[in-house]
Amino acid sequence: xxxxxxxxxxxxxxxxxxxxxxxxxxxxxxxxxxxxxxxxxxxxxxxxxxxxxxxxxxxxxxxxxxxxxxxxxxxxxxxxxxxxxxxxxxxxxxxxxxxxxxxxxxxxxxxxxxxxxxxxxx
Length: 122
Known about the structure:
This protein is α+β, with helices and mostly antiparallel strands. It has 2 helices and 5 strands; from the N terminus they run E-E-H-E-H-E-E.
């Protein structure tokens, strides 16, 4: 099994509902996102899939989040805009877009700072 990972960033504001501390106030992050994919066999050029394709899928999903107030987006109307749920959102959106035979989405990890991240995998 081969594991491929692509990274990108987006900037957004959010606040954490039902929380008592600094994060309950509106604030922003420059989020870093890592998406990991797995595949069994390299194909043409010795690659499971061209990184350019995976980067494009991730960029498409993140473009919706970039420079937004996350709490106002439909997905976050019924759940808090925590790093955990941001990872879940990105995972679900990437999974919908991924249409490459023999390649599966493994994990999405969202970093809200250099020392704190949350990941989602099925």
